[in-house]
Amino acid sequence: MTNQKVTNEANPQSEVTRVRELLGAPRVVAVVGMSPKADRASNYVARYLRENGFTTIPVNPTVTEVDGLKSYADLAALPKEPKVDMVALFVAPERTMPAVEQAAAKGIKIVWFQPGAEHSPSEKRARELGLAVFAGLCMKGEHERLWGGTGC
Q1: What superfamily does domain 12-147 belong to in CATH?
Q2: Which of 91, 93, 106, 128 has the most CB atoms lying inside 10 A of its own CB?
Q3: Residue pLDDT, tens place only, 82-102
Q4: Three-class secondary structure assignment of the chain
Q5: Domain boundaries, the chain
């Protein structure tokens, strides 16, 4: 699997436009697998997103708090407010399917499989459930690429 997998491989320009739309306005992002360790991608990507106007919600069953934010065991445990717009997956590929199912059940419309979390069966299921899917692209890297910065 390549690092540049997008949802519409027949028209990559439309994907750039879609990524720009998604990351151009601050959103609420549930970060599945968010680590309390500052040197982990899940932590520094979430921190970058917060610094750029996003709200991040940690989802990690092994901790109660990350960076002073309450952590939830899974997406099903998220409160109704704030309404989550997007899920960023920072978990092993085989652990993505429950998050996809829970995202759909919660009405979350976008699932972003960070590099290393890509999983074809989960991506396919997300599309079947009507979710927008991005895979193999780093949210931080894409935001910085489109608005200036150093990337992931």
Answers
A1: NAD(P)-binding Rossmann-like Domain (3.40.50.720)
A2: 91
A3: 999 999 999 999 999 999 999
A4: CCCCCCCCCCCHHHHHHHHHHHHHCCCEEEEECCCCCCCCHHHHHHHHHHHCCCEEEEECCCCCEECCEECECCHHHCCCCCCCCEEEECCCHHHHHHHHHHHHHHCCCEEEECCCCCCHHHHHHHHHCCCEEEECCCHHHHHHHHHCCCCC
A5: 12-147
